[in-house]
Amino acid sequence: MSALTGVLAGAVILLVLLNIYQFLVQRSALRVAEILYVMAGNVRAKAQEVRREGKDVEIIEAHLFDMAASARSILRALGRSEESLGPDAALTVSTNGGGRMSSDSLLRLADNIFFAVSEENPAAEWDYMQGEALKRFQQKVPNMEIEAARKIVNVVAHQFHKENGRKKPLSVAR
After folding, report:
1. How many CA atoms lie within 13 A of 62 on its CB side?
2. How many whole angstroms separate alpha carbon 9 and alpha carbon 141?
3. Structure letter (DSSP) for residue 174
4. For residues 20-32, average pLDDT
5. What average pLDDT does the segment 45-69 reach?
6. How many C-beta atoms lie closer than 10 Å to residue 69's C-beta?
7. Distance (Å, whole) CA 7 – CA 5
8. pTM of the model
């Protein structure tokens, strides 16, 4: 009788664990769906803003790129292999429709990244901001040579400096 009780207790524990696992998987799937829904709503809102104000389409392209990159990261975190995901979003979401990003798309991507870095830490030193932007840019475009990526980020940083009137080395300006 005790062996039968032990087997039944083991079966009950196993079923409870499977039920908890199923619940957690379902909750994570719902959370992923919520994230994608919010991101799609943001893109839709930006598309309406672009249409209303006659802005350039780069805003929408940047949001679509962010959505594709986020969805890819979520899928990788959930265990999908790199081969099953297909080509990287950095190369598939581009203005020229080919497998490579145009120079304008690369500059916009670097500009978005540099702006994000500067917004995250506005008091950071100039060299840190450029280094962090370069690191993030290389993650988004891993096939690009380091020197070419550095040149693109430097151009964007120089333009940022010119537009914002910010002195390059913050440590000297103190």
Report:
1. 17
2. 53
3. -
4. 88
5. 71
6. 16
7. 5
8. 0.41
